[in-house]
Amino acid sequence: MEKTVLQTKTLPLNKVKINDPFWSYYINLVRDVVVPYQWDALNDRIADAEPSSAIKNFKIAAGEEKGEFHGMVFQDSDVAKWLEAVGYLLSIERDEELEKIADGIIDIIAKAQREDGYLNTYYTLKEPGKRWTNLCECHELYCAGHMIEAAVAYYQATGKRKILDVVIKFADHIDDVFGTEPGKLRGYDGHQEIELALIKLYEVTSNEKYLRLSQYFLEERGRKPHFYEEEFQNRGGTHHWPDSWMIRNKEYSQAHKPVSEQDKAVGHAVRFVYMCTGMAHLAAETGNREMYEASKRLWNNMVSKNMYITGGIGSQRHGEAFSTDYDLPNDTVYAETCASIGVIFFAQRMLQVEPNSQYADVMERALYNTVLAGMGHDGKSFFYVNPLEVYPPACGANQNYDHVKPTRQRWFGCACCPPNVARLLASLGQYIYTVRDNTVYTHLYISGQAEFELDGNRRLILEQETNYPWSGNIQFTIKVDQESELTLALRIPDWCENAEISINGELQSVSEQIIDGYAMIKGNWKTGDQINLVLSMPVVRMKGHPLVRHTAGKVALQRGPLVYCLEEADNGPNLHQLLLPSNSRLEVVEDENLFGGMKVITGEANKRKTETWGEALYKPNVKVESESVSVKFIPYFAWANRGLGEMQVWVNEKETL
């Protein structure tokens, strides 16, 4: 196929070293706390957490223990995501003890693999003989995809082939089973994941068979006669879950029509963004223009009509899904952590096709807000659901809020989110830069050092220093083997109204150099050259689209990439009684008592007085008095780290003349 889409390359993780006052804490937390804690959880050593049995399942399948399968049908994926995070950590810094633990579970996984390459503990232990009979509901290809991603990450980090050979054998088995050729199964997964994993396997092996197989799974999806119905009939009408709605509702898994014809964000939010990630990655690798255009349509619908200000997606509990355009409730929202991680995957792949800042802006929004909120500051507690408004008494009394937790949980029976957070943060270095020809794109502002190989065997080392997201001052220092002509493309975020760039102290004209949201700074660079970027970071009052009824008459505060919220710990109860005057002066101050120092926003607001209301539930013609109170907004990602209490992102606004 003639390549009509150019690919922008990401950097290998071992070529990026993060040394950042903000992000290094979280990366070290993943290494020192999160990964060890999750290993204990996978081994059922956390006393007050739901049991996992994920490691035990593999040991039983490997013949090392006796017992029965326990857990969700997709339990294997938790181990795979843990192993993937370990691979990324080992790419950053070798750790003999961690590598030894990983090698141990890899040995067990290899023993659990069947002779023909098949690997899945649920079907090996619980339903032998029924493999590949319920792809719609039972996550076989989803688990396969996560194991493939883990193997690629671990091989790239250590050079050890054992787990890579396991997944190659498994992928070859999948290729033997699925396809359009006579005798093969013309099926596809219910939960997309194998598509993007196979492309990663292709990248590391250069075997185009895996790229073609990924393309098959994407292009076969949604075609008629419908595969889900055929396999349902072949099973005699049986289903894995309590009822067959997952099979009947084709939009739930985006199988209602071929992917190239889809134009709306529908169904299960995680499945949607994983599918789109595969589509965009396939477009980047093959130049498939039709797949690229479909990816772009789906992206535009998602971000313009179905995304929360925090970068969350999936507005309803039922199906963990999108509902309809502009339906974005704040209190019953789902906004699964995994879904925002998927948004970041999707954005990164779109940047590989088209380096346009709109993708990096959303990637940043999801990263700094929903994804970080999904993990407690201690690294041992997690949110599955990420609401924008919480009233704890209702969470325990109203079943409409059963999915909303006002405090983070230690673990989950369905534990997809914690290891997903770990693998993303451990691989954060891959999201900062991309390279196309002799242009280096900076998408995220994170202190550290990156090494680039340019045309003509030239080497560039780019050092970035910043106190982002608290400050908009970013400095780049260049080191090159020889004087080199190249372009540095610096993202100007959508929230920034004024940006200044200076080169070796000389102020530049920015507006004339911006292309697709990036300031294109071209020059002949030599070692020691410095580029300073200053992004203005005022407090911005954000408003929702007029068709979003849930934000009507409300305002949210944002500074830089961070969305802010009110918490009961700072502002007392009944946050819904607060009115923020439209002309209220807002100040940014550092709170040294908040997790070692965070920038918070303070100001004056009005709070309705209800003490004299009385017992009547309703009253006619009552003017409710209000009083002036001081308010404090903290970064949304930091909420729920100080005990149980109310939280609110969108605040009632009081218009002033």
Architecture blueprint of SSEs:
Layout: E1 9-10, E2 16-18, H1 23-42, H2 54-61, H3 76-92, H4 96-112, H5 121-125, H6 135-138, H7 140-158, H8 162-177, H9 194-205, H10 208-220, H11 227-234, H12 245-248, H13 269-286, H14 289-305, H15 337-353, H16 357-373, E3 389-390, H17 392-397, H18 417-426, E4 433-436, E5 439-442, E6 448-454, E7 458-466, E8 473-480, E9 484-491, E10 499-503, E11 506-507, E12 514-515, E13 518-525, E14 530-535, E15 539-542, E16 554-559, E17 562-567, H19 568-571, E18 578-581, E19 586-591, E20 598-608, E21 626-635, E22 647-648, E23 651-654
Parallel strand pairs: 5-9, 18-23
Antiparallel strand pairs: 1-4, 2-6, 3-22, 4-5, 6-7, 7-8, 8-14, 9-13, 10-11, 10-14, 12-13, 15-16, 16-17, 16-23, 17-21, 17-22, 18-20, 19-20, 20-21
Helix pairs in contact: 1-3, 1-18, 2-4, 3-7, 3-18, 7-8, 7-9, 9-10, 9-13, 10-13, 13-14, 13-15, 15-16
Provide a descriptive summary of the structure in words.
By secondary structure, the protein is of the alpha+beta class. It folds into 4 domains: 1-51 and 258-428, no CATH class; 52-246, no CATH class; 433-535, Immunoglobulin-like (Sandwich), CATH 2.60.40; 541-654, no CATH class. 35% of the residues lie in helices and 19% in strands. Strands 2-6-7-8-14-10-11 form a 7-stranded antiparallel β-sheet, with no helix packed on it. Strands 1-4-5-9-13-12 form a 6-stranded mixed β-sheet, with no helix packed on it. Strands 16-17-21-20-18-23 form a 6-stranded mixed barrel.
